[in-house]
Structures are given as structure tokens and as C-alpha cells.
Amino acid sequence: MKNVTKFALSGIFVAAGMVQAHAHATFANPTVPEETTSVIALQVPHGCDGKATTEVQIKLPEGFVFAKPQPKPGWDLEVIQGDYAKTYDNHGKPVTSGPVEIRWKNGDLPDAYYDTFVIQGKVSGVAAGKALAFPATQLCGTEGKVAWDQVAEEGTDPHSLKSPAPTLTVAAKSGGGHGDHAGMAMGGASAAHDAVVKIGELEITGAFTKAMLPGQPVGGGYFIIKNNGQKDDMLVSAASPIAGAVELHEMAMQGEVMKMRKLETGIAIPAGKSVELKPGGLHMMFMKVAEPFKEGGKVPVTLNFEKAGKVDLTLEVEAAGPGGQKQN
After folding, report:
1. Which domain of life, per UniProt (predicted)?
2. Taking the alpha carbons of 182, 186, 192, 197 in that order, is the dihedral positive or negative?
């Protein structure tokens, strides 16, 4: 049994002909620790014989469970649910089904560029040293298709295949990890989250962003704004010297549809209330980033409020996490 959940994002909105590719689709991070939740990024290096890629499909192998894809501006997101062959433990709860295929659709990735498609998931019940294959397919409108779906038999060199499926090698779990989320950011780890920036009656705390994966064109920004005054205010814009543009966005579920939109008028900060910018909700979006954010770095940004005026803020760059979620 399979179910389909669809997410629609604002932005740019059956393939024929197999095309021989010049470079293989691969993962930016070739290994994942066993029994650990990780973030993986599929690199799509080209289109279909010069044509732009409009859809990317990734089938998830048994043992890569509890998957959550990262939305991409300008692409629709479709998650196909199905039954697992085994039962997996999710913090004490037995789970027998979940996402088995992810599809990014109705996008536009020109052949001259490459991009990454990111998924968070847990490797469970797979021995260290084993390779997990993720058959992937690119569609280019109605005019082209590239399938990376050949899975090498055990003992066979995958380089001998014409269209090998992208693979990840399962590594032994490091003893220095933090539970199921080893290698991902731990919320509250930096003292920067306790820093308070004040402007007028506003207090800004918990400012952070996430390291960007190779090829990732945008980054998010998150913090909490508390309005201690008796008058409403509005965050009307933001700017950063290391990004071509900074936009204010909102993501919200509407039924079974996740919609992301640019907030043209800004984010309201009601009197006596706190507003949190967080992954999956209100957030800043850094566009046209010249240098990818790196863990341990800092991202300067200037916030412009309707009444309080302008204030400079520094976001600490944490390790890349699952869709930007902070882990406690």
C-alpha cells in the first residue's frame, strides 16, 4: 500500500527517451553512520542532453527510514508513503511504514548548472560496510529522462554500470555521537543563543543559521523577537553583505499542502508578544549567497523594523541539520 502526500511551494512551475549521461548523480556525503539520523544531499550534475531538469525522483532503500525531505524554493514536493519490510523503533514506538520515495517536481534546473536535493533520514538495521543504493531519476519536461537506477550485485564493481544508482556506504557509529542524531547540531550548544540584542522595546534572542551543503543556493535565518512595548511593530526587511538578497518567508500547512510564500509587507510583532522565526514556519531566506555558510562561522544581517528602526544581528552557523531543525 502506498499513499502520496504533496507539498506545493511558490515559485517556477511522462518523459521520453533515455539519454546517456556524462557525469553520474552522486551524494555529496558518501558515507553515513549506522543507527544514526543523517542529512544526505543528492548532487544532480546536468540535465537531459542539454535540456533543463524539471523533476528529480529518489527511491529510498530499506533501512533508510523516517525520511524528511528539504523543500526547495521553486519546486513542488511529493512524498510517497509505503510499507517497510521490517519494523523499526522510533524512540520506543514501533513503525512499519513511512516515506519510500521523494519527488521534487515542476522546477527548472538548467543543464549549465547543478544542484543538490536534500533528505534527512535514519540508517537502521544496516550493518557497517554495506552500501545502500538510492535509484534516482531526472525528468526534463516531456522531452528527456536520465535514470540512475542500476544497482550492482554484491561483489560487483558499480563503476562497471552505465547508469549506477547513487550509493551511500554505512560506517560504524562513532562513540562521540549524541544518541540518534550524531553529527547533527545540538540546540543550545552555543552561548550565542543566550545573547540578547535590544532595539527600542524589542529584544532579539536565539539567532542562528545552518551550515550549507555543497551546491545549496539558499540559507535560512532564525531567531526570536520579543516586543516589550505597548505598540505593535513590524519587521519589514533584512539585508546582509554576504547575500545578494534576504527575504522574509512563511511556511505553513494548508490541509495536506505545505505552502511557502514571500511576505511582501513583513512580519508583524504584536505588542507584549514574542514571535519566533524557525524552520518550518516564519524565517529569513538568504538568496544568492556568495560563499556557503560553514559551521562555526558567523552571518551578519541588518534587520529593519517599522517603528524601532535598524539593528545589526549576528547569526551563529551551526552544523547542517535535518531540514534546519534544532535538536535538543
Report:
1. Bacteria
2. positive
| Residue for grid cell 544518541 | 179
Other beta carbons within 10 angstroms of residue 77's beta carbon come to 22
Report residue 275 as a C-alpha cell: 514571535
List, in order of start, the domains of the chain with CATH numbers: 3-174 (2.60.40.2230), 191-324 (2.60.40.1890)
Distance CA 34, CA 37 (A): 9
Q: At a CB cut-off of 8 Å and minimum separation 6, what does 189 contact?
A: 318
pLDDT, tens digit (0-9, with 9 covering 90-100), for 162-201: 888 999 999 987 654 444 554 443 333 344 455 789 999 9
pLDDT, tens digit (0-9, with 9 covering 90-100), for 255-290? 555 567 889 999 999 999 999 998 878 999 998 888
In the structure grid, which three cell numbers stand for residue 271, read together?
A: 505588542
The DSSP string of 86-125 is EEEEETTEEEEEEEEEEEEES--B-TT--EEEEEEEEE-S
Q: Which amino acid is at 27?
A: F
Task: Find, among 202, 196, 208, the residue nearest to 269 by Cα.
Answer: 202
